[in-house]
Amino acid sequence: DVPVFAYGHFLTILLNFIILAFIVFMLVKQLNRLKKEAPPAAPAATPEDVVLLREIRDSLKK
Predict the structure, then answer these.
(1) If I label 61, which of 1, 6, 46, 55 is the partner at 20 to 30 A Cα–Cα?
(2) What mean pLDDT do residues 32-41 have?
(3) Residue 46 burial (CB count, 10 A)
(4) d(Cα 38, Cα 33) in Å, to the nearest integer?
(5) Concatenated DSSP letters for 26-56?
(6) What distance in Å separates the CA atoms of residue 50 and residue 11, rounded to the nearest whole number?
(7) Is residue 38 predicted with pLDDT exceeding 70?
(8) How far is 20 from 24, CA to CA, in rounded Å?
(9) How far is the C-alpha of 58 from the C-alpha of 62, rounded, in Å?
């Protein structure tokens, strides 16, 4: 018996791997795009004491 290299089976497995790798790549690419498009969080409200200090500063400038 002579060992036979089943190159058809190898090519099928290789093609399936390439297709699956491409699909996973596209999924990751879309997920990264969706993460970047998320709107940035609104800045935290300025504390009341800082607002009062700014008003005092502005009053003193006048």
Answers:
(1) 46
(2) 80
(3) 9
(4) 9
(5) HHHHHHHHHHHHSPPPPPPPPPHHHHHHHHH
(6) 69
(7) no
(8) 6
(9) 7
Between 17-21, 27-31, 35-39, 57-61, the lowest mean confidence (pLDDT) is in 35-39
Residue appearing with tokens 């990264």: 32
Residue 57: strand, helix, or coil: helix
Can you read off the two tokens belonging to residue 54? Answer: 């700014």
Mean pLDDT for the stretch of residues 7-15: 94
Tokens, residue 26: 């596209």
**19, two tokens:** 């297709």
| Chain-centre distance for alpha carbon 59 | 46
